[in-house]
Amino acid sequence: MISKKMILCSLVVLFSAQLKAQPSYHLESGSLRLDITLEGKRYKGALQLPQREDVYEIDVPMTTTSPLFKIHSDLDSVTMTLAADSVYVVHAKLPDRNILITIQALRAEKNASFTPQYISSYKNTYTVILPEVQELLNCLFAITPTGLRDSNLINHQGYYYKEVINHFIGYANDPLVLKLERKLKEGSYASLKMNSNIYVFKNNNIITHGPYNNLGWGGINNLKPFIPELERFAKETGFRNFFRSHKKYYDSLLKVYEKALDIRKQWKWLENKFPIIHDRYVISFSPLVNGSHSTIKVEDNGFNETIMFVAGPVLFSSYEKKIQEAMLGRMVFTEIDHNYVNPVSENYIPLIDSLFGPSQKWILPELTNSYKTPASIFNEYMTWSLFNLYAYDNYKKKDFEFINQLTERDMIQRRGFIKFREFNKILLDLYKANKQKKISDLYLALLQGLRAL
Questions:
Q1: Which of 101, 302, 361, 388 is the most exposed place for a label (fewest CB within 10 A)?
Q2: Could you give the CA distance from residue 453 to residue 444 in angstroms, rounded to a whole number?
Q3: Which residue segment(s) compose the domain that 411 sits in?
Q4: 16 and 84 assigned to the same domain
């Protein structure tokens, strides 16, 4: 059995392998609450410590040179001047235990640097990819306690999942797996997975490749500290041979995507309905992903890409071919359209806040950790209902009615968006009555109509 002391030591070594280790600090507290400030301002609220964890991690984006970072309790305080790409350790003595707090100061950089050559090569194109380093990370996620338990995070169905578990489960107590479990509990799944797309394997080394600096929403590459351990884990587990041995399977999924998805049709429809233009789409997928999707818009040098991180095309095989294609299209569409919906929603935040502020009216309680703001709840309703408008325009009446009912069922019963049927009807009726208008021009009428719900 691995002792807690060994785990703590291995975590500190893990950090310092990629980041510069700084002198450690000591802090005493008479309570289970620590306050944090960055440059004199409260940083993401108080650090509450009721759960019996031994290590807490904080990722800090370095947006200025040498920012002041302070942790203070009812009895004591620690102040440090952060340096980019460094790790700081605070030994905190609490009433019931001792813990480590690690602060990763990560350099904040723009998402990408697009050269003229890159822009000319990729403008008005889309690409579907299954990246190797992302798949390594997904295999690691799959054997964490959260990944083994959460079938929405990890797709537990099919032969490939069984192959992953059979090959990697013996490494479930690896220090890297334990570290990633902590990051999953923090809610870092999407940003870690998205940032893995920056990297490729060169022999047994993991290196950056292409125009990207970070692909996380927070402006930092929070995967960077893990690269040495990812290289080690891949080598010890024979991951690269595992990946190569499944290449035919991956290629078959890529072919399904290429054949079934009509990205250009979705792209054209959205840009006819919104005053927003995108230059390129990238769809990054894995058969290990289930319902936890994400997207980011990357802009530089007058060029913008929309990158979507979604599941593999293996989730809808029980439907007839036309409906399979629609459901696969919905999976990608409802990520693409966030890049059209969210910017328009920003113009209506006060009204959205007033309507969607009581979240229990709109979503089940267990969703509040994932959808923390009224705008995030509204945008999720809007993006899924928008797909039904697309289906209304592009499928036969019988198929549309089935797709519409299926989407309503999935949003209410499977996802917990309890007012989706009513929301969807209001938007669909508005759309049918105002086909000459852009959907972005219907927001005010939609929000006014939602007052009655």
A1: 302
A2: 15
A3: 337-453
A4: yes
